[in-house]
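Late entry, evening session. Most of the bench is empty. Finally got around to the prediction I had been postponing all week. Sequence below, unchanged from the version circulated by S.P.
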Amino acid sequence: MSPQHRGYSSVQDRPATLADVAAASGVATSTASRALSNPGRVNAVTRERIERAARELNYIPNSQARALTSGRTRAIAVLVSDVTNPFYFGIIRGTQQQLKAAGYTQILVDTEESDELEDGMLHKLRPSFDGAILAASRLTDRRLTALADEVPLVAINRQTRGVANVFIDTPNGVEQAVGHLVSLGHREIVYASGPETSWSNERRWRALVRAAEGYGVKALRVGPFAPRQYAGAAAADAVLHAGSTACIAFNDLLAIGMLARFRERGVDVPGDVSLVGCDDIFGADFCNPPLTTLTAPIEQAGRTAVAMLLARLDDGAAPITRQAATLPTHLTVRASTGPARAASTAEPTPSTPPKGRG
């Protein structure tokens, strides 16, 4: 029998409540709540009756009310440093797919490369989410550790003691890039640095230095530069001023901007300068020339972070501070790298790679 026949026509004059659904189904409100939020805890016949009543009443769950009664919002905040950066598209896609499959809502926050905004938004939105995923957080180690004690969270591309994390191993990819450039006869490699507040930026630079020392070549650093295409002009000019024949850029957006500037100045890539990017974002293979870059499992990082966080939430107070996952990267060679002009007079290339990893 429909809710209207049961005497609930007044529901049409206002939004249906969980109590309306329970009354129409002939069950307690707590049973209706379990059936709609955790179906596995209610027998199939009762669950179907409650779901049918909810459909007939056009019942829309109120996440804030649900949070008040259960302590759970079934929403996860995903914070990214720059939502316009294609690198984060993969992160967002991965988290969204995994959260949707688990019955969670994603709250997306663009922190605009600001540690203050990141910290402030986490506190402002705290009543609205159960946990958070921070992609490339700009917070200090101390602040991030303190937050992990207050909020269930997982960091992507950030390794901090006491914080669960998913690490995309771009430092190891940088070592691969150095080996590739050395094999082409380059004896000096410059790093076009990203933001000073970027944890991964410093790790990539350290990996380049280690690899350069192992191969017996010189490493230089220019920057910092914004991790955006417009900053590529200044980065390209700095590389040309340094006089290096090879460059590894902080990310693909910066590298793509550098390609445009080199073209403006009549610099041949890779004839005059070889260029390597990082992340293998959409469009990296459409450049002129197509960009040699570090390919990373970006969507997988988002999915892994969600799985790690939901495991913590499902286990109640079970700690996740020791959980960590490392995802490998690899160098994808395209046309933006080639032999150094002076390769014929360069010193012999070492036949063995450097010791250590990024």
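Two things to note before I forget:
The chain has three domains: 9-61, 74-168+298-328, 169-296+331-345.
The mean pLDDT is 86.
Will write this up properly tomorrow.
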